[in-house]
Specification:
By secondary structure, the protein is an alpha+beta fold. The chain is about 45% helix and about 15% strand. It folds into two domains: about 40 residues; about 35 residues. The protein contains four helices and three strands, in the order E-H-H-E-E-H-H. The longest helix is centred in the last third of the chain and has 19 residues.
Length: about 90
Amino acid sequence: MPEMLAVTEVVRHFADYLNRVAYRRESFVLVRGKRPIAELRPVPLGRKLTDLPGLFASVPRLTPHEADEFAADLVKARIELSHVEVSNPWRS
């Protein structure tokens, strides 16, 4: 839960609180009197799930020949990896 801070406290030490938001990813609720009036919080990182269809649409498409070569590479890699002996790192 975000820390509750008086607006006057934030005004007096604004740079410090901005640094805490930016570098420590802290959030604060600003209070005037006893009433919450604003929130100081980091901007969310990353992308929204609603951006996903647009991201998929922007990915370059493989030509049929490239897709066939990629599929062949996957088959080859699976065959090669099936011959690799897997060791148990937890065995003493």
